[in-house]
Design brief:
Pfam families: HTH_1, LysR_substrate. Belongs to the LysR transcriptional regulatory family. Keywords: DNA-binding, Transcription, Transcription regulation. It comes from Aquella oligotrophica. This protein is of the alpha+beta class. It folds into 3 domains: about 100 residues, Winged helix-like DNA-binding domain superfamily/Winged helix DNA-binding domain (Arc Repressor Mutant, subunit A, Orthogonal Bundle), CATH 1.10.10.10; about 100 residues, Periplasmic binding protein-like II (D-Maltodextrin-Binding Protein, domain 2, 3-Layer(aba) Sandwich); about 110 residues, D-Maltodextrin-Binding Protein, domain 2 (3-Layer(aba) Sandwich), CATH 3.40.190.290. Helix content is about 40%, strand content about 20%. It contains 10 helices and 14 strands. The strands form 4 sheets. Strands 3, 4, 5, 6, 11, 12 and 14 form a 7-stranded mixed beta sheet that branches. A 3-stranded antiparallel beta sheet has the order 9-8-13, with no helix packed on it. A hairpin with a 4-residue loop joins strand 1 and strand 2. Helix 2 packs across helix 3, helix 2 crosses helix 4 and helix 2 crosses helix 5. It starts with a helix and ends in a 10-residue tail after the last helix.
Length: about 325
């Protein structure tokens, strides 16, 4: 059973005591999530000394140590973790109740900040964003295009589409799409350098490497033949990129084989402008995840998440895909 915050705090407290603990608990939650007194003070528009004093006051009222302080870092105690989980759970209950009430009386309204990577996710989703705004004129959408891992708290992001499961423990994560990495080149490339006939031939060609979100380059790639056979190939490219969509520009010069996705080259393949290299192989499997903060459950966020999932479901429905295990 879910109880309201005032019940957990104690019915014997008066309203001023409850309000004081509630406000101090909100400050503690910011410290728990950001792990920096100075940044919390800046975010809340108060002095750093005030943040410290309010946390100490909360500890005195609860008769618990919530934070261990040192000159180097902030460490939350076990009691601090338990209090954060309990308080945020109840605070989310209250916020969601208010949002549900507002939603039941009003049309969708508010602002959504969405972080989205360049490439296939942008290719699938962006064409429909303007239509969503047209259908919901009280909603403002801010699209943040980036390939680095999004920090939802620091960057004030409501939702993010990412290629790797984030390390943050305060996030809700849902897989929404998966596809394959392939190799592509132009007919001009083949006329200049020839066309690879098998996996061993790839060593003689300039093939773009891929820079992952953590800035590393994975030189070991698991390859799967359509008949199910699997291979590992190792290579070190002298040309690497961090966006498969960037390869669409690079490929035009006709001097490199680029990594890419069928979804990005559908038109070019139909027009004969791009050729798939060794089409009987899948060179990697990639997935995309929709993430949000645990406590971000507003009706608008839920509605926009459903819209995003429908866009990707539509693409999945129109794609003939076979599931492959993810490459770590």
């Amino acid at each position: 059973m879910t109880y309201p915050i005032y019940f957990i705090m104690g019915a014997e407290m008066n309203i001023l005591e409850i309000r004081s603990i509630y406000n101090d608990a909100l400050i503690f939650c910011e410290v728990y999530e950001i792990k920096n007194f100075s940044l919390v003070a800046k975010k809340l528009g108060i002095n750093q000394s005030t943040v410290t004093r309010r946390i100490q006051a909360l500890e005195e009222k609860l008769e618990l140590q919530l934070i261990r302080r040192s000159t180097r870092k902030i460490e939350v105690t076990d009691d601090g973790v338990k209090f954060y989980q309990l308080f945020t759970g109840q605070e989310n209950y209250l916020r969601n109740a208010i949002e549900e009430f507002k939603f039941s009386r009003n049309s969708l309204n508010g602002k959504i900040r969405l972080a989205i990577p360049y490439g296939i996710a942008n290719h699938i989703l962006s064409p429909y964003i303007a239509k969503y705004v047209r259908e919901n004129p009280q909603v403002n959408i801010e699209l943040i295009y980036q390939n680095r891992e999004a920090d939802l708290i620091k960057d004030a992001i409501d939702l993010a589409i990412v290629r790797q499961i984030p390390a943050q423990q305060t996030l809700m994560v849902k897989k929404i799409y998966e596809t394959y990495v392939q190799l592509f080149c132009t007919p001009e490339y083949i006329s200049r350098y020839g066309e690879p006939k098998d996996l061993n031939d790839l060593e003689q060609h300039l093939i773009t490497g891929y820079i992952k979100d953590d800035s590393s380059i994975d030189n070991l790639m698991r390859v799967e033949h359509l008949d199910g056979r699997q291979f590992f190939i190792r290579g070190k490219s002298s040309l690497s990129i961090n966006s498969t969509e960037a390869g669409k520009t690079l490929i035009r010069g006709g001097h490199a084989i680029v990594i890419g996705l069928d979804e990005l080259y559908e038109g070019e393949q139909k027009r004969g402008e791009v050729v798939k290299v060794l089409p009987e192989y899948r060179f990697a499997h990639t997935a995309f995840y929709l993430v949000r903060l645990n406590n971000n459950n507003s009706p608008l966020v839920k509605h926009f998440m459903q819209f995003i999932e429908e866009c990707f479901k539509l693409k999945n429905k129109n794609s003939n895909q076979v599931n492959l295990p993810e490459i770590s």
